[in-house]
């Protein structure tokens, strides 16, 4: 699976840049509606951004990438925020943005892989939305990420394996739906997620 390295907030038919900090709108009449926000979590390279974008296009919904949202708000790349303020500084901003997005109209929200590392964020995820955990091994994730410089916390593979293993129980703690992404295309994963969201009542078809 190619997860797509450029991240963005996108709506059906719109350029990724179309949605910034203003009201969230799908470009085309939505065919489905969300009853609550959907948060995508999982390790770097799991496909959170690609799958949430794909689903947004399939369903006429809005997708937002938390890291892109942060980069636009801060006018700095994530890697620059890490360089300037360290991981703790990045996590503070990430937590603010998560709370902000959780309180807006429901959308498909692709979170950064480390969002689950604070108890406060885990509480927001569990209380405010439906959480889709996309599982990937560090080794498969490495193959999907073409430019590691955009991921300050993905360095040595051994370290990435250990980080992914340490986070696994945290992803599991918040997950409403879990999809193992191994060997699957973005479209296949998106279809699986769509079915699961319909089944558990987060996604409803609108009358035509
Ligand atoms: C991080 C994942 C990144 C980004 C930051 C930290 C992490 O997002 O938020 O580099 O701690 O796993 P992606 O999961 O979208 O790569």
In brief, what are we looking at here?
The protein has helices at residues 48-59, 66-74, 78-102, 119-128, 138-144, 157-174, 186-199, and strands spanning 10-11, 32-34, 38-41, 62-65, 108-110, 130-135, 177-180, 203-205. It is of the alpha/beta class and 208 residues long.
Question: Can you put this structure into words, describing what you see?
Answer:
It is a single chain. By secondary structure, the chain is an alpha/beta fold. Helices cover 46% and strands 14% of the residues. Helix 3 crosses helix 4 (119-128). The radius of gyration is 16 Å and the shape is globular. Residues 44, 48, 67, 78, 112-114, 151-153 line the site of shikimate-3-phosphate. Shikimate-3-phosphate (S3P) binds at residues 44, 48, 67, 78, 112-114, 151-153.
E-strand count: 8
Strand content: 5-15%
Assembly form of the protein: single chain
Approximate shape: globular
Estimate the helix proportion, in percent.
Answer: 40-55%
How do the strands of the widest beta sheet line up side by side?
A: 1-4-5-3-6-7
Profile the largest sheet.
6 strands, mixed
What distance separates the N and C termini? Answer: 33 Å
Uncertain ranges: 3-20
- SSE ordering: EEEHEHHEHEHHEHE
For the residues shown, what is the average pLDDT? 89
Bound ligands: shikimate-3-phosphate
Supply the number of helical segments.
Answer: 7
Structural class by sheet pairing and helices = alpha/beta
Radius of gyration, Cα only, in angstroms? 16 Å
């Amino acid at each position: 699976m190619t997860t797509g390295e450029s991240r963005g907030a996108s709506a059906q038919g719109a350029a990724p840049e179309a949605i910034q900090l203003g009201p969230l709108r799908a470009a085309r009449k939505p065919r489905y509606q969300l009853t609550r926000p959907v948060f995508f979590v999982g390790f770097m390279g799991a496909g959170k951004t690609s799958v949430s974008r794909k689903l947004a296009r399939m369903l006429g919904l809005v997708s937002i990438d938390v890291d892109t949202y942060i980069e636009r708000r801060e006018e700095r790349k994530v890697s620059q925020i890490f360089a300037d303020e360290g991981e703790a500084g990045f996590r503070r901003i990430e937590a603010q943005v998560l709370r902000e997005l959780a309180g807006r109209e429901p959308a498909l929200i692709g979170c950064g892989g480390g969002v689950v590392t604070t108890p406060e964020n885990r509480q927001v995820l569990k209380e405010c939305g439906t959480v889709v955990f996309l599982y990937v091994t560090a080794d498969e994730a490495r193959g999907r990420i073409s430019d590691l410089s955009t991921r300050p916390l993905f360095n040595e593979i051994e370290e990435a394996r250990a980080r992914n293993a340490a986070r696994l129980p945290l992803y599991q703690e918040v997950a409403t739906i879990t999809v193992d992404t191994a060997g699957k295309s973005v479209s296949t994963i998106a279809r699986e997620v769509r079915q699961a969201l319909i089944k558990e009542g987060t996604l409803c078809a609108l009358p035509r």
